[in-house]
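Dear support,

I submitted the protein below through the web form. The confirmation email said the job was done, but the results page showed an empty box. After a refresh the structure appeared. I'm attaching both so you can tell me whether what I see now is the final result or a partial one.
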Amino acid sequence: MTDLDGPRAQPQSGGPAKQLVVLLHGLGADGNDLIQLTPYLGQALPDAAFVSPHAPEACDMAPFGKQWFSLQDQSPQAIDAGARRAAPTLDAFLDAELRAHGLTADKLALVGFSQGGMMALHVGLRRADPVACICAFSSLLPGGDHLADEIQSRPPVLLVHGEADEIIPVQALGATEAALTANRVPVTSERRPGMGHGIDERGIQLAIETLRANLPGAAAR
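What the results page shows now:
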């Protein structure tokens, strides 16, 4: 099993972490990508620690960057299989981070972009101890057909997707939302007009609202 690590940001309050936000990057990036969200998220969540682990594999579709699993085959079956292979490594990392901070699972939030969102959804819904919430940007749900048999917890989920996404079409949001709703997962979604494969200011604000609403002790002051 590959050990994960990546850039971190300590609570802006200067005190011990009362919440933990794990940021999961997309294909061909690394942890240095989403850690750039922490100045915005950290201002709204001053008691939260942040970590953005590098995915375990070298990207096989670019000369740089990392991947959680290969996307050379983008069939639903291959994506499901890839997420399953990567899940134990991410699960172990989450457990280790919670232990290191002395926090329980309800203080943990998962924020993922693209392939990182796939991992956040796949792992977060299958953990026996529910995480506080999941935010997935420009992503999709791997293995939705199997979710009814495998779901272990139902944390609130935020889905944000650009209507002009050229990598993962916005229709994926509807399919993901339908699968989550069918499995009684609370879900909020927003389609962003004109936005491609990315995260905009509105998406960041929605994530802040979701994190504040669901992380214990993080409500707006």
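Response: this is the final, complete result; the empty box was a page-load delay. The chain has one domain: 8-214.
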